[in-house]
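Progress against Task 2.4 (sequence-to-structure conversion) is shown through the following example record, which the project officer requested during the mid-term review.
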Amino acid sequence: MKYEWIDDYLLKMPGVTKDLQKDWNWIRYQIGGKMFASICLDDNDKPYYITLKLEPLEGNF
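Structure tokens generated for the chain above:
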């Protein structure tokens, strides 16, 4: 993975779990069963984009 620091950073947060949702080919990061970030993998299992959940006002460009 090109940005290993992202995985390390997210996993250091309290209560974070990580799994692979193979149907979507996403690495998911969750707290209490709620996804807040994902790394989306291409057909060769290489990361090609990241999604982050945030408050609407923080994501308003």
